[in-house]
């Protein structure tokens, strides 16, 4: 009766005695509703309770670490004399060293145990998010190199922590990026509690690094103090501040640090999302471990208008961004630069909202099954989209309150009000479209083949095989020429320069024609719903990319226009922007990943 035992479950002695006394022809399924079956299944219930207890304990550990670090950072902000930035860096360095030690132990100890990784979650760690970890991690390493170089030049004014802290962070970034690239799909089956605690400690460390990054403005303060020092020198006043021996090199390091600073915050948020999925997969047993998840390939087929409109939006956005950077970031900001910037958004955001609503309606018209399987990655996608959108939506509501309370009637304030309202509506409609699309089952290859078989028997589908046959026959004719003719062709080839070029141009034209016909063939065989969904997804991908580029590389009109800053005060509005702006940038990047997946599965 050993073959009738339930897998993945160690039976108790009562179960063994009952199965041994059962007749050989009776299956254990007959005893499912008996007290004995319920008693034997208590082992699985105990595993679930242990899993919940382990998740609760690791979550409490992360919560206490985050509260401790937040208290340190808040104390530094409110009383920078008692708690300095060096004290915060010491605490974060200790946490990073502990995280690196756990990652090394996981790689060399936990994962090498017998039956440690039996299951791997195919949905976790898609290539776009792992690639973003490598990209943002590399830029964060470059950021720390700039910080180390800048502190080494000013070693007389800087402490040793200014060099040690970024050095430890480089080691932490490298270890974490390697761990996430290779082991983001692991469903570890051994040492559950230790793994959960290590993952939660790493998540808490990344959250504290993000919180420290969005509240730290020391580099801007140093640049402003250096400008004040130059002014005091012109007036004849002496200062005791530290001066840089090489102004050019110091300015390069300062500008590079400010330019790369947002990527460090993005790196922390992306790592938190991936680590959370791994934490949810600890001890998880998939129902079909040997059936791989078939992911649709990303092919540039079925789109014509989406790339054209999206590329137009990107080109115009780059021009607006460059003009804004030149005119609005000077000593005297130009109001026309703000008017142009907000006008671009006011034109683009309604278009994005309308196409997102159209895509949601098409999702409702489609007869696709919903993906109802338990999937931590899908649940996290929804949480991140909704949570990251709160940063941009929160800043918009603060701007609306400031404009309405001051009763401003000029053109710029009217544009800011329209921009805030449209941005809230665009975030909501895009979230609905992405979340609805991610929970749809992708089109299977069999259904696509049936659809192409019904619609591809006439028209251009019948023309393509004939062209393939003609090209194949022409190739056979060319290869079946006699050796004498080949020698004659070789002898005549140097004498036919212009004609040979004409032949090559004709062959190139034929290849372009065949590629174009193939693209039109694939485009025509898609249903109109799939074509519209692909056009919408591609257009929104390009729009979100340009809306990610502009604030990431320094376009911050919400802080530079002066309206909200004068209403709420410098410190309060600086904290609001530093909290909401990184979330809005992360929202755009995460939306691009979801839209690419919708395009591939449409």
UniProtKB/TrEMBL annotation:
Compartment(s) of residence: Cell membrane
Signal sequence residues: none
GO molecular function annotation: proton channel activity
Keyword Glycoprotein: no
Keywords: Cell membrane, Hydrogen ion transport, Ion channel, Ion transport, Membrane, Transmembrane, Transmembrane helix, Transport
Record's compositionally biased regions (Basic residues): 7-19
Cellular component terms (Gene Ontology): plasma membrane
InterPro entries, alphabetized: Otopetrin
Region (Disordered): 1-21, 446-502
UniProt feature, compositional bias: Basic and acidic residues: 474-495
Topology relative to the membrane: Multi-pass membrane protein
TM annotation in the entry: 56-77, 89-108, 128-151, 163-181, 193-213, 258-279, 300-324, 344-362, 382-405, 411-429, 536-555, 567-587
Domain of life: Eukaryota
Family assignment from sequence similarity: Belongs to the otopetrin family.
Protein name, per record: Otopetrin 3
Gene field: OTOP3
């Amino acid at each position: 009766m050993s073959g009738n035992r339930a897998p993945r479950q160690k039976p108790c002695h009562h179960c063994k005695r009952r199965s041994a006394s059962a007749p050989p022809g009776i299956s254990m399924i007959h005893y499912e509703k008996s007290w004995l079956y319920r008693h034997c299944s208590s082992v699985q219930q105990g595993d679930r309770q242990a899993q919940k207890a382990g998740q609760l304990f690791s979550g409490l550990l992360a919560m206490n670490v985050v509260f401790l670090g937040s208290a340190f950072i808040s104390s530094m902000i409110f009383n920078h004399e008692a708690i300095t930035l060096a004290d915060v860096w010491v605490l974060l360095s200790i946490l990073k060293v502990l995280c690196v030690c756990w990652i090394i132990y996981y790689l060399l100890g936990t994962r090498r145990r017998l039956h440690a990784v039996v299951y791997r979650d195919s949905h976790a760690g898609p290539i776009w998010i792992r690639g973003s970890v490598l990209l943002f991690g590399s830029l964060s390493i470059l950021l720390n190199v700039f910080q180390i170089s800048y502190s080494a030049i000013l070693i007389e004014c800087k402490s040793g922590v200014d060099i040690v802290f970024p050095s430890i962070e480089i080691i932490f970034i490298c270890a974490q990026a390697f761990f996430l690239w290779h082991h983001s799909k692991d469903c570890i089956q051994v040492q559950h509690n230790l793994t959960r605690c290590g993952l939660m400690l790493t998540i808490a460390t990344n959250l504290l690094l993000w919180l420290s990054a969005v509240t730290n403005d020391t580099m801007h303060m140093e640049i402003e103090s250096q400008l004040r020092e130059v002014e005091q020198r012109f007036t004849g006043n002496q200062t005791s501040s530290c001066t840089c021996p090489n102004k050019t090199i110091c300015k390069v390091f300062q500008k590079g640090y400010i330019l790369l600073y947002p990527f460090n915050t993005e790196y922390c948020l992306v790592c938190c999302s991936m680590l959370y999925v791994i934490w949810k997969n600890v001890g998880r047993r998939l129902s079909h471990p040997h059936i791989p998840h078939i992911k649709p390939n990303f092919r540039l087929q079925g789109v014509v208008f989406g790339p054209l409109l999206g590329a137009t939006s990107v080109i115009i956005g780059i021009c607006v961004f460059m003009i804004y950077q030149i005119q609005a970031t000077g000593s005297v900001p130009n109001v026309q630069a703000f008017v142009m910037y907000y006008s671009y958004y006011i034109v683009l955001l309604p278009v994005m909202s309308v196409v997102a609503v159209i895509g949601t309606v098409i999702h409702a018209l489609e007869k696709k099954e919903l993906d109802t399987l338990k999937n931590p990655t899908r649940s996290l996608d929804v949480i991140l989209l909704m949570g990251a959108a709160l940063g941009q939506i929160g800043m918009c509501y603060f701007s609306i309150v400031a404009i309405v309370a001051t009763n401003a009637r000029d053109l710029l304030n009217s544009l800011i009000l329209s921009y805030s309202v449209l941005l809230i509506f665009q975030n909501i409609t895009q979230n609905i479209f992405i979340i609805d699309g991610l929970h749809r089952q992708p089109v299977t290859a069999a259904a696509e083949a049936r659809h192409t078989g019904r619609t591809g028997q006439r028209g251009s589908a019948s023309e393509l095989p004939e062209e393939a046959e003609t090209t194949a026959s022409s190739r056979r004719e060319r290869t079946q020429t006699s050796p004498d003719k080949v020698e004659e062709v070789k002898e005549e080839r140097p004498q036919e320069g212009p004609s040979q070029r004409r032949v090559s141009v004709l062959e190139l034209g034929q290849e372009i024609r065949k590629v174009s016909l193939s693209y039109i063939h694939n485009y025509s065989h898609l249903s109109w719903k799939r074509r519209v969904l692909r056009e919408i997804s591609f257009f929104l991908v390009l729009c979100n990319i340009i809306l990610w580029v502009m604030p990431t590389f320094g376009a911050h009109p919400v802080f530079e226009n002066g309206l909200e800053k004068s209403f709420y005060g410098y410190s309060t509005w600086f904290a609001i922007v530093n909290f909401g702006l990184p979330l809005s940038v992360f929202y755009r990047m995460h939306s691009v990943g979801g839209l690419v997946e919708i395009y591939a599965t449409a």
